[in-house]
Amino acid sequence: IDVLAANAELEPPPLSSLVPNRLRELVRHMLRKSIHDRPQTAAEVLGALTELRLDLQLAERGRMQHVSVS
Length: 70
Hints:
By secondary structure, the chain is mainly α. Helices cover 66% and strands 0% of the residues. The protein contains 3 helices and no strands. It has helices spanning 2-9, 21-30, 42-69. α2 (21-30) packs antiparallel against α3 (42-69). The termini are far apart.
């Protein structure tokens, strides 16, 4: 019962700083205590993940181009 009470009342520990900021924000959003503060559909989560993936891919391409030009 203590574990259930803790889950209902306490915030989860933060994710590692190795996790991209936007992914950490999405996870925090998904774990909010109030159902009204969380994503309302799986499609909303999928959209956020798809956008994040595209941003990470573009950033990686930019890093690779920067390295190959140097």
